[in-house]
Every structure is written in structure tokens, then in C-alpha cells.
């Protein structure tokens, strides 16, 4: 039986500790419970090991640090490279040595010291207005071209998804080149950065902008949103362009996992982590979250495949992680969040 907790349940989460019983694995997750439940159900069906989930939209690392050696956390799941690196930086992980994981997760999608591992990947792509943008091929570099002046919308430059992209541009262009590029992108903004990725699609639908920067998985979320059908209209108004697809590839970010430093159920935690890298689990998880499996050859969902051919940048995510702090500084230096000058 799966016991599920949510930090959104009024106040209850802060005073509640998950059990550390045998044949159970305790998961702290920043990814919403309904998105990971199908793959956890498959794990339990295959192994007989129960899972207990604590969802923490914010404050996961602080929670584990505060719990110290008595933390019941076994496995931590998060939605981007920044979260994975914060686990390591705060000292709440332990290295995992597994031939299964090493065989299934390419080196560029795992920590050099085996402290974290990517599970699914998504592209940071360009949303383009179908009826106003007549190009089907674009590069990140071109987003700084003055021909797009007043036509681009993005969320905050300080958001982790953009910071990872900007860090990759530092790695690609060098700091001076990336600074000039970021200034050009800033000057092409149609408005000050705001909202989430779906808000950029809404801006395209309304005509506020012609291009937006967003993650691929939001396209799937909008396309299948029965509760808010207006988002289907946002999706229908745009096409997905994979920048640099014909060259180095489109920027990639990952959701991922790490084993907690004081995991009380080590064997069960390792069993879960290994399972999550298998073709079966990768297909289930990636389809649920509209992302791409990290495991080469694992099945991609029909919705995600419909976005178009995705050539992911092979850049080592460890390099991006090392440049995130500098990317954040450059956002402030160029005044990106103040908008065009």
C-alpha cells in the first residue's frame, strides 16, 4: 500500500515523519505525486517494495538538512539540474555505485562522483507563432539578432530553467560572448520577463510576442489539458523549434534522483534507483511527464514524438552545473529582468 503525503496539505507536512520500515522506500520529491505515482506503482508490482512519498514543492533540501542523521529520506527526486546540484552542495547525498545505473545512464547525465543521476530530459526550445513566424530552423545565437526586436517573451532570467540555458551559452561562447548574446536577447524582449513557460505560449496566442523560450514538456501539458481547455488553444497557436538541432543540438535539462546521505533503507533505495533507469520505468515516467527518456532506445510517447525530431546537446551537465552561479550573475549584470533598453 502506498502512503502519499503532500506539503500542500495544511500544515501537516512539517510535523510528520515518514516511516523507515523494512521493504519500503521513502521518497522526498519536488515533482508532484500524480506524475511519479504510475512508475512507483510499477516498481512495487515488480519488487513488492512499498513506496512512501513526501511532496515538497520548496524547501526539500532544508528539510533534509534539518532532519540530519535521523532523516527517513531514502531517495530524493527533483525536476532540474539545479536541484540535483543543490543536493550535493548541501551534503545530503551519498555516492551510489551500481553497474545497472552506470550502464543505463550516459555519463553526461550523471554526476562525476555518482552523487546524482538524470532520469528524464527535456529540451529548452523556442515556441514560435504558427501564423507569424515563417522559419522552421533557428539557433539560440539567432535569438539575439535585431530582426527579433520586440518579438520574444521569456520568464525570469533568474529561473533555474533559464539559468541552465544561459550557463550552456557561457560554456559554448565563453563569458564575453555569452554576455553579448544575453544583452541581445534582452533587447529583443517584447516585455519584461514574467510568468512561467506556459505564460510565454499564452503571449504568443494573444499576439504579445512571436517567439517564446520554454521547455518541451509544457507543450504536452497544454496539449492534453482538459481542466483548462484554453491552454489547448495556446498550444495550437505555436510550433516547436529545436534550436541548433542541425548543429550541436538543443539545450537539455533533466529531472533526476539521488540517494539520501543517511538513507535508512539503503537496499530498497538502490532497488528503486536501478529500476527507474530500466526501459520499462523510463517509458512510463517519461510518458507521464511529457519528457524524453535518458536511457537510449527507451520508448518516447506519441505526444512528445509529435513535437518533432530532437537532437539533444551532448554537453556534460556537470559543466553546466559549474557555470550556473556565473550565469545568474550575468543576468543581473546585463539587467535582463528589466527588459529591453
Question: Can you give me a brief rundown of this structure?
Answer:
This protein has 341 residues and is of the alpha/beta class. It has helices spanning 33-47, 60-67, 81-89, 99-104, 160-187, 197-206, 216-223, 230-236, 266-276, 279-289, 302-305, 317-333; strands at 3-6, 24-29, 50-55, 75-78, 93-94, 117-129, 152-153, 211-215, 238-241, 252-260, 292-293. It is globular and about 60 Å long.
Structure, explained:
- The protein is of the alpha/beta class.
- The chain has 2 domains: 3-121 and 253-298, Periplasmic binding protein-like II (D-Maltodextrin-Binding Protein, domain 2, 3-Layer(aba) Sandwich), CATH 3.40.190; 122-250 and 315-338, D-Maltodextrin-Binding Protein, domain 2, CATH 3.40.190.
- Helices cover 39% and strands 17% of the residues.
- It is built from 12 helices and 11 strands.
- Residues 1-22 have low confidence and may be disordered.
Could you name the key traits of this structure?
D-Maltodextrin-Binding Protein, domain 2; 11-stranded mixed sheet; 341 residues; disordered N terminus; alpha/beta; 12 helices; 2 domains
CATH class membership of the largest domain? Alpha Beta
**Main pleated-sheet profile:** 11 strands, mixed
Strand content: 15-25%
CATH superfamily membership of the largest domain, which one?
Periplasmic binding protein-like II
CATH topology of the largest domain: D-Maltodextrin-Binding Protein, domain 2
* Count of domain modules: 2
Quick one: how many beta strands? 11
Write the layout of secondary structure elements.
Layout: E1 3-6, E2 24-29, H1 33-47, E3 50-55, H2 60-67, E4 75-78, H3 81-89, E5 93-94, H4 99-104, E6 117-129, E7 152-153, H5 160-187, H6 197-206, E8 211-215, H7 216-223, H8 230-236, E9 238-241, E10 252-260, H9 266-276, H10 279-289, E11 292-293, H11 302-305, H12 317-333
Parallel strand pairs: 1-3, 2-3, 2-4, 7-8
Antiparallel strand pairs: 4-10, 5-10, 6-8, 6-9, 6-10, 6-11
Helix pairs in contact: 1-9, 1-10, 5-12, 6-8, 7-8
Amino acid at each position: 500500500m502506498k502512503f502519499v503525503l503532500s506539503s500542500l496539505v495544511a500544515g501537516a507536512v512539517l510535523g510528520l515523519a515518514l516511516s523507515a520500515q523494512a521493504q519500503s522506500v521513502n521518497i522526498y520529491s519536488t515533482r508532484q505525486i500524480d506524475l511519479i505515482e504510475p512508475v512507483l506503482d510499477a516498481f512495487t508490482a515488480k519488487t513488492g517494495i512499498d513506496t512512501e512519498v513526501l511532496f515538497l514543492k520548496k524547501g526539500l533540501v532544508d528539510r533534509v538538512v534539518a532532519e540530519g542523521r535521523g532523516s527517513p529520506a531514502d531517495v530524493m527526486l527533483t525536476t532540474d539540474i539545479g536541484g540535483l546540484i543543490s543536493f550535493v552542495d548541501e551534503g545530503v547525498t551519498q555516492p551510489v555505485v551500481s553497474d545497472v545505473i552506470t550502464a543505463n545512464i550516459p555519463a553526461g547525465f550523471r554526476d562525476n562522483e555518482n552523487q546524482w543521476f538524470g532520469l528524464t530530459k527535456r529540451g529548452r526550445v523556442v515556441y514560435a507563432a504558427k501564423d507569424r513566424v515563417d522559419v522552421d530552423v533557428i539557433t539560440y545565437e539567432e535569438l539575439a539578432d535585431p530582426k527579433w526586436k520586440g518579438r520574444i517573451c521569456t520568464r525570469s532570467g533568474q529561473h533555474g530553467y533559464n539559468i541552465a540555458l544561459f550557463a550552456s551559452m557561457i560554456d559554448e561562447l565563453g563569458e564575453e560572448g555569452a554576455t553579448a548574446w544575453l544583452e541581445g536577447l534582452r533587447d529583443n524582449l517584447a516585455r519584461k520577463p514574467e510568468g512561467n513557460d506556459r505564460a510565454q505560449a499564452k503571449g504568443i496566442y494573444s499576439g504579445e510576442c512571436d517567439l517564446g523560450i520554454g521547455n518541451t514538456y509544457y507543450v504536452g501539458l497544454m496539449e492534453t489539458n482538459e481542466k483548462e481547455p484554453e491552454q489547448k488553444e495556446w498550444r495550437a497557436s505555436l510550433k516547436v523549434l529545436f534550436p541548433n538541432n542541425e548543429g550541436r543540438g538543443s539545450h537539455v535539462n533533466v529531472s533526476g534522483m539521488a540517494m539520501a546521505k543517511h538513507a535508512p533503507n539503503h537496499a530498497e533505495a538502490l532497488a528503486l534507483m536501478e529500476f527507474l533507469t530500466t526501459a520499462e520505468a523510463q517509458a512510463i515516467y517519461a510518458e507521464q511527464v511529457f519528457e524524453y527518456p535518458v536511457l537510449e532506445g527507451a520508448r518516447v510517447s506519441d505526444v512528445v514524438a509529435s513535437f518533432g525530431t530532437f537532437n539533444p546537446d551532448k554537453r556534460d551537465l556537470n559543466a553546466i552545473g559549474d557555470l550556473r552561479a556565473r550565469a545568474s550573475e550575468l543576468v543581473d549584470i546585463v539587467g535582463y529582468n528589466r527588459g529591453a533598453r
